[in-house]
Protein backbone atom coordinates (compact mmCIF):
# COMPACT_ATOMS: atom_id res chain seq x y z
CA UNK A 1 0.00 0.00 0.00
CA UNK A 2 1.19 3.53 -0.76
CA UNK A 3 1.58 6.13 1.98
CA UNK A 4 -1.65 8.02 1.19
CA UNK A 5 -3.68 4.81 1.38
CA UNK A 6 -2.13 3.87 4.71
CA UNK A 7 -2.87 7.32 6.12
CA UNK A 8 -6.48 7.18 4.94
CA UNK A 9 -7.03 3.72 6.40
CA UNK A 10 -5.44 4.79 9.69
CA UNK A 11 -7.65 7.90 9.95
CA UNK A 12 -10.82 5.96 9.21
CA UNK A 13 -9.88 3.29 11.73
CA UNK A 14 -9.17 5.94 14.38
CA UNK A 15 -12.65 7.40 13.83
CA UNK A 16 -14.20 3.93 13.98
CA UNK A 17 -12.34 3.12 17.18
CA UNK A 18 -13.55 6.36 18.79
CA UNK A 19 -17.18 5.65 17.86
CA UNK A 20 -17.22 1.98 18.82
CA UNK A 21 -15.28 2.40 22.06
CA UNK A 22 -17.84 4.87 23.48
CA UNK A 23 -20.08 1.84 24.01
CA UNK A 24 -17.33 -0.63 24.93
CA UNK A 25 -16.86 -2.16 21.47
CA UNK A 26 -13.51 -2.93 19.86
CA UNK A 27 -14.58 -1.99 16.32
CA UNK A 28 -13.60 -5.18 14.46
CA UNK A 29 -16.58 -5.05 12.12
CA UNK A 30 -15.69 -1.49 11.12
CA UNK A 31 -12.03 -2.38 10.58
CA UNK A 32 -13.08 -5.27 8.33
CA UNK A 33 -15.32 -2.95 6.31
CA UNK A 34 -12.57 -0.35 5.92
CA UNK A 35 -10.04 -2.93 4.79
CA UNK A 36 -12.56 -4.36 2.33
CA UNK A 37 -13.11 -0.86 0.92
CA UNK A 38 -9.39 -0.58 0.20
CA UNK A 39 -9.15 -4.12 -1.23
CA UNK A 40 -6.94 -5.54 1.52
CA UNK A 41 -6.37 -9.28 1.05
CA UNK A 42 -9.00 -11.38 2.90
CA UNK A 43 -6.31 -13.45 4.62
CA UNK A 44 -4.96 -10.23 6.14
CA UNK A 45 -8.29 -8.73 7.17
CA UNK A 46 -9.40 -11.16 9.87
CA UNK A 47 -6.23 -11.33 12.02
CA UNK A 48 -5.66 -7.58 11.60
CA UNK A 49 -9.18 -6.76 12.79
CA UNK A 50 -8.79 -9.04 15.81
CA UNK A 51 -5.37 -7.61 16.65
CA UNK A 52 -6.75 -4.05 16.55
CA UNK A 53 -9.73 -5.24 18.58
CA UNK A 54 -7.31 -6.29 21.32
CA UNK A 55 -5.91 -2.75 21.52
CA UNK A 56 -9.22 -0.92 21.73
CA UNK A 57 -11.01 -3.48 23.89
CA UNK A 58 -7.98 -3.60 26.19
CA UNK A 59 -8.10 0.17 26.65
CA UNK A 60 -11.84 0.04 27.20
CA UNK A 61 -11.60 -2.77 29.74
CA UNK A 62 -9.03 -0.87 31.76
CA UNK A 63 -10.84 2.47 31.72
CA UNK A 64 -14.27 1.06 32.50
CA UNK A 65 -12.75 -1.04 35.30
CA UNK A 66 -11.01 2.03 36.71
CA UNK A 67 -14.31 3.94 36.57
CA UNK A 68 -16.12 1.15 38.44
CA UNK A 69 -18.30 0.41 35.43
CA UNK A 70 -17.56 -3.32 35.01
CA UNK A 71 -19.90 -5.96 36.41
CA UNK A 72 -17.29 -8.70 36.81
CA UNK A 73 -19.80 -11.40 37.76
CA UNK A 74 -21.88 -10.77 34.63
CA UNK A 75 -18.76 -10.69 32.45
CA UNK A 76 -17.49 -14.02 33.78
CA UNK A 77 -20.87 -15.70 33.38
CA UNK A 78 -20.92 -14.97 29.66
CA UNK A 79 -17.17 -15.41 29.10
CA UNK A 80 -17.03 -18.85 30.76
CA UNK A 81 -18.51 -20.49 27.68
CA UNK A 82 -17.86 -17.76 25.10
CA UNK A 83 -14.06 -17.95 25.27
CA UNK A 84 -13.72 -21.69 24.46
CA UNK A 85 -16.43 -21.34 21.81
CA UNK A 86 -14.57 -18.41 20.22
CA UNK A 87 -11.41 -20.53 20.17
CA UNK A 88 -13.30 -23.27 18.31
CA UNK A 89 -14.97 -20.79 15.96
CA UNK A 90 -11.65 -19.16 15.17
CA UNK A 91 -10.47 -22.39 13.59
CA UNK A 92 -13.57 -22.92 11.43
CA UNK A 93 -14.05 -21.45 7.97
CA UNK A 94 -17.73 -21.03 7.04
CA UNK A 95 -19.07 -19.29 3.89
CA UNK A 96 -20.75 -16.06 5.03
CA UNK A 97 -23.56 -16.04 2.45
CA UNK A 98 -26.12 -17.63 4.78
CA UNK A 99 -25.62 -15.99 8.17
CA UNK A 100 -24.43 -12.51 7.12
CA UNK A 101 -27.85 -11.19 5.94
CA UNK A 102 -29.67 -12.82 8.84
CA UNK A 103 -27.35 -11.41 11.52
CA UNK A 104 -27.34 -8.01 9.83
CA UNK A 105 -31.14 -7.88 9.91
CA UNK A 106 -31.21 -8.86 13.59
CA UNK A 107 -28.73 -6.09 14.42
CA UNK A 108 -30.87 -3.53 12.61
CA UNK A 109 -33.95 -4.70 14.53
CA UNK A 110 -32.07 -4.29 17.82
CA UNK A 111 -30.86 -0.83 16.76
CA UNK A 112 -34.41 0.25 15.91
CA UNK A 113 -35.59 -0.83 19.36
CA UNK A 114 -32.86 1.22 21.01
CA UNK A 115 -33.63 4.33 18.95
CA UNK A 116 -37.34 4.10 19.72
CA UNK A 117 -37.16 4.01 23.53
CA UNK A 118 -33.68 5.03 24.73
CA UNK A 119 -34.96 6.94 27.78
CA UNK A 120 -37.26 4.11 28.84
CA UNK A 121 -34.53 1.49 28.59
CA UNK A 122 -31.99 3.72 30.32
CA UNK A 123 -34.26 4.20 33.33
CA UNK A 124 -34.93 0.54 34.07
CA UNK A 125 -33.48 -1.16 37.12
CA UNK A 126 -31.09 -4.00 36.15
CA UNK A 127 -32.29 -7.51 36.86
CA UNK A 128 -29.96 -10.50 37.28
CA UNK A 129 -29.55 -13.11 34.57
CA UNK A 130 -29.39 -16.77 35.54
CA UNK A 131 -26.48 -19.02 34.64
CA UNK A 132 -28.95 -21.24 32.76
CA UNK A 133 -29.42 -18.35 30.32
CA UNK A 134 -25.97 -16.72 30.37
CA UNK A 135 -23.90 -19.86 29.71
CA UNK A 136 -25.62 -21.01 26.48
CA UNK A 137 -25.94 -17.41 25.26
CA UNK A 138 -22.24 -16.89 25.89
CA UNK A 139 -21.36 -20.07 24.00
CA UNK A 140 -23.44 -19.06 20.97
CA UNK A 141 -22.04 -15.53 20.87
CA UNK A 142 -18.49 -16.81 21.35
CA UNK A 143 -18.89 -19.18 18.42
CA UNK A 144 -20.27 -16.36 16.25
CA UNK A 145 -17.39 -14.15 17.36
CA UNK A 146 -14.83 -16.74 16.34
CA UNK A 147 -16.53 -17.43 13.03
CA UNK A 148 -16.91 -13.77 12.04
CA UNK A 149 -13.55 -12.51 13.28
CA UNK A 150 -15.09 -10.06 15.77
CA UNK A 151 -15.20 -9.93 19.54
CA UNK A 152 -18.93 -10.62 19.81
CA UNK A 153 -19.82 -7.30 21.40
CA UNK A 154 -22.34 -6.41 18.69
CA UNK A 155 -24.30 -9.51 19.69
CA UNK A 156 -23.99 -9.23 23.48
CA UNK A 157 -24.68 -5.50 23.97
CA UNK A 158 -28.26 -5.43 22.69
CA UNK A 159 -29.14 -8.57 24.63
CA UNK A 160 -27.92 -7.11 27.94
CA UNK A 161 -29.70 -3.81 27.33
CA UNK A 162 -32.97 -5.13 25.91
CA UNK A 163 -33.39 -7.75 28.66
CA UNK A 164 -32.33 -5.32 31.38
CA UNK A 165 -29.45 -7.41 32.73
CA UNK A 166 -27.35 -4.27 33.36
CA UNK A 167 -27.55 -0.52 32.80
CA UNK A 168 -26.03 1.13 29.72
CA UNK A 169 -22.71 2.26 31.17
CA UNK A 170 -21.91 -1.01 32.94
CA UNK A 171 -22.95 -2.86 29.79
CA UNK A 172 -20.10 -1.08 28.04
CA UNK A 173 -17.68 -2.27 30.72
CA UNK A 174 -18.88 -5.87 30.46
CA UNK A 175 -18.75 -5.83 26.67
CA UNK A 176 -15.23 -4.38 26.54
CA UNK A 177 -13.90 -7.22 28.69
CA UNK A 178 -15.96 -9.78 26.74
CA UNK A 179 -14.53 -8.57 23.42
CA UNK A 180 -10.97 -8.61 24.76
CA UNK A 181 -11.23 -12.23 25.92
CA UNK A 182 -12.99 -13.42 22.76
CA UNK A 183 -10.51 -11.67 20.48
CA UNK A 184 -7.62 -13.39 22.24
CA UNK A 185 -9.40 -16.73 21.92
CA UNK A 186 -10.30 -16.16 18.26
CA UNK A 187 -6.70 -15.39 17.35
CA UNK A 188 -5.45 -18.37 19.35
CA UNK A 189 -7.92 -20.62 17.56
CA UNK A 190 -6.36 -19.73 14.22
CA UNK A 191 -2.86 -18.72 15.26
CA UNK A 192 -1.43 -19.44 11.81
CA UNK A 193 -3.44 -16.50 10.44
CA UNK A 194 -1.18 -14.12 12.39
CA UNK A 195 1.48 -14.72 9.75
CA UNK A 196 -0.64 -12.55 7.44
CA UNK A 197 -0.51 -9.46 9.68
CA UNK A 198 0.55 -6.44 7.58
CA UNK A 199 3.84 -4.59 7.95
CA UNK A 200 1.79 -1.42 8.55
CA UNK A 201 0.20 -2.88 11.69
CA UNK A 202 2.09 -0.59 14.15
CA UNK A 203 0.65 2.47 12.37
CA UNK A 204 -2.86 1.07 12.55
CA UNK A 205 -2.39 0.12 16.20
CA UNK A 206 -1.35 3.69 17.03
CA UNK A 207 -4.38 5.06 15.15
CA UNK A 208 -6.97 2.90 16.89
CA UNK A 209 -5.27 3.45 20.25
CA UNK A 210 -5.79 7.21 19.90
CA UNK A 211 -9.40 6.68 18.83
CA UNK A 212 -9.97 4.21 21.66
CA UNK A 213 -8.58 6.59 24.26
CA UNK A 214 -10.94 9.35 23.12
CA UNK A 215 -13.94 7.04 22.86
CA UNK A 216 -13.50 5.37 26.24
CA UNK A 217 -12.91 8.78 27.86
CA UNK A 218 -16.30 9.88 26.55
CA UNK A 219 -18.08 6.62 27.28
CA UNK A 220 -16.78 5.88 30.77
CA UNK A 221 -18.54 8.76 32.48
CA UNK A 222 -19.19 11.77 30.27
CA UNK A 223 -22.03 10.81 27.96
CA UNK A 224 -25.58 10.49 29.38
CA UNK A 225 -27.15 7.03 29.32
CA UNK A 226 -29.69 7.80 26.55
CA UNK A 227 -26.81 8.96 24.33
CA UNK A 228 -24.93 5.74 25.04
CA UNK A 229 -27.96 3.73 23.97
CA UNK A 230 -28.33 5.78 20.80
CA UNK A 231 -24.61 5.38 20.18
CA UNK A 232 -25.02 1.64 20.49
CA UNK A 233 -27.91 1.80 18.03
CA UNK A 234 -25.67 3.60 15.54
CA UNK A 235 -22.97 0.97 16.01
CA UNK A 236 -25.50 -1.77 15.26
CA UNK A 237 -26.74 0.03 12.12
CA UNK A 238 -23.18 0.28 10.82
CA UNK A 239 -22.33 -3.32 11.70
CA UNK A 240 -25.58 -4.58 10.17
CA UNK A 241 -24.89 -2.72 6.92
CA UNK A 242 -21.41 -4.18 6.82
CA UNK A 243 -22.70 -7.71 7.29
CA UNK A 244 -25.44 -7.36 4.66
CA UNK A 245 -23.69 -5.35 1.96
CA UNK A 246 -19.96 -6.00 2.38
UniProtKB/TrEMBL annotation:
The primary site where this protein sits is membrane
Q: What is this protein called?
A: Probable membrane transporter protein
Transmembrane stretches in the record are 48-65, 72-92, 137-165, 171-189, 201-221, 227-245
Q: Is Transmembrane helix included in the keywords of this UniProt record?
A: yes
Organism of origin is Sphingomonas brevis
Superkingdom classification of source: Bacteria
Q: Where in the cell is it found?
A: Cell membrane; Membrane
Keywords (alphabetical) are:
Cell membrane, Membrane, Transmembrane, Transmembrane helix
Similarity annotation: Belongs to the 4-toluene sulfonate uptake permease (TSUP) (TC 2.A.102) family.
Membrane topology reported for the UniProt record: Multi-pass membrane protein
Amino acid sequence: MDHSTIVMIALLMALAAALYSTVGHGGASAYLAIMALFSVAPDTMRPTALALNLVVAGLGSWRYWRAGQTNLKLLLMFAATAVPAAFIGGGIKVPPDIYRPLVGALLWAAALRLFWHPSLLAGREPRPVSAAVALPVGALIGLLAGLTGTGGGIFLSPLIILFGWEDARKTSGVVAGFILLNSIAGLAGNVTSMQALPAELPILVAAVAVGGIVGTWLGAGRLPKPRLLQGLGLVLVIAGAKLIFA
